[in-house]
Amino acid sequence: MASSAALTTTHLPRLRQELEEWRAKQPSSQPFSKPLETIQTRLDEHKYKTERGKDVIVAFRTRPPLEHEAEQKFNISTEGSKNAQGVADLVDDGESKQELEFCSGVSVTSADPGVFVAHVPGMKWSGPTLTHKKFDSDIAFGPNVPNDEVYERTVVASDIIPLALANGTACILAYGQTGTGKTYTMEALEYRIARDLFVAAKKIGDDLLEAERKAAPDVPAGGGDDSDETTIKEGGVFEFSVTFLELLGKRVVDLLEPIEGLPLDEQGNPIRKEVPVSEDKNGDVRPRVNSRTIESAEHLRELVSSALSYRRVEATTRNATSSRSHALLHIRIKNKLLPFAQDGQLILVDLAGSERYEDSKAHDKKRMLESRENNNSLMHLKECVRAKAKMAQEDGFVHIPWRANKLTMLLKPVFDVESRQPSKTLIIAHVSPHIQDSAHSVSTLSYASPFKTSPPKPRGPPPYNAADPRTWDHIRTTEWLTTQFTKAAKARRAHAYKLKAQDAAKKGKKLPSLDDDAPVELAVDVEKLCPPGMTARNFGGMYSIEFVQRCLEAKNPNAGKEVTTSVVKNIGGDVIAELTYAILVAKTKSRREIMKSRKVVNADETYGDSPWNTVPGTDIPKPEVGTPDYELFIRYTPDQYLIAAQRQRALWDDRITQALIKNHGSQAQKDKNTVKFETVMELMDEFYEKVYGPGGANTSEQ
Hints:
Number of helices: 24
CATH architecture of the largest domain: 3-Layer(aba) Sandwich
Radius of gyration: 32 Å
Largest sheet: 9 strands, mixed
Oligomer: single chain
CATH superfamily of the largest domain: Kinesin motor domain
Shape: globular
Strand content: 5-15%
CATH topology of the largest domain: Kinesin
């Protein structure tokens, strides 16, 4: 069994010796596979990629130990005294001060792919032991890796910023034990993202404007309106808005809400108005909070610094400034050139520190409730992230329970299986460097490691399905694109004819009927848009902004002056939306077919009859089916009987005894089991009326 931090401290000399022996047998650590200079060139390019990579990326990180941290945190003394837990700090009288210093609890055996080994102290009859547990991730950062390199090997290498600028959804989560450096990492990432976001936006925006200019050299970029062109050039192609929420327990507040005039709590913190979190009729979760428009990196950094200064922190046994809440920075990105496209989203979440019993046993009641709610929300988040990672690998239906908690509801854009936006989630799991925290490090790594998934193995080309674009070849893809652009051209021709016919009618004239079968010039050269080798699967993997830019580059010069760049953008947006929807429908149908093909287990055949032969929690025989008593019995579930019986055992025993005595003295005596059953049903109604109000448990189902 794993030993406590106090017990581990008493056996540091022996544990350190075993650790050194283990390290001596290990090969040298595997370094990062890509040079940092290669990744930095991706940052300079600022282009969105058609190769999306994995939907969930897992990174491990541990920080360096602070000076005298082990002495202060684990109450180590060099004089052989007892620590706060009453355990002697020294075992051997001759132990030196050096032996009482920091002892590592984790080792990085491979940086890329990431491998952490947690060294877990234990205790057997023969004395202390050290177990080495291995955990895998996509990338791992040791204590000496600076924030700049962490940012470049995670955010930059995963194209997080280009994804958000290409109307996708990108999310970064920092998870781990309190005091492991989550906030330190997230603040560094937030400031660096603020620095690079506007640089990347300008580069990508300039590329879009250049594509428009080449598509229509005689027409100003932005659609032909000089005022619009000037506005876009001065303000940029992208518009950014920011919200910053704090989730403290079950309470969500807006950290950007002005504090002037707000009341203060006993600690001097402003008491902000609670923000309701719910799903609207369109299925969106957008809390009504202050959304600030930002126009520069400096402005974004100022907002982040201001909001973080109001975040709740408390001193705990593990961290003097422990964050007691989840902080969610949500950046929405709107493309002014593509008004039809969904907003890009960049969500950065600094999660509250997870705590085990040893970390929270000294908390007061308020801190204990906070820890419980934080751990509860982290468990719900784990289920959602694990389901998302599983969904990326499997064709079968995977349910993501994002409605189970407010934290996961706020992250709906990341977990919504019906969303047409491409998404990517980066999880950075932080662990303590101390061997005294190894048990919690194992918990953290066990939480995050299963999120790592391997790319699906190649299965060869799937069988052709006319309704599934993922199975189309180049010829079928070209035919479909030609059909879609032809429909758009004919729709524009019909609309223009209708306007001309109305004008002619006003003048008393009548135009000849429109020939629907007459050939039309397409807005886009389909052969240039879809060169040999490209299929619908390639286009389905593109971001909408990339597809529209390709349409602008493939604009048909014979389409006529009325086919402006704005027309090409709108048609291209409609075509990629149709293709994305067709792929989504095909995925849903295939998942439903897989679910229908699964064998349905007959519970009665597998498990036999119900194990409840008595009223749960009692020795009273269960009423027979079809009797009036049975109709009363099935009003409650077995779990509800058990809960009520466990919580009111003494009351139940007293009331049943009193009912039996009263029945014994009555002239019209009833059967003992009948008396017991009637008494239990009265107790059940009384108990659940207190819980749910009048109507008992039935009101919870209405």
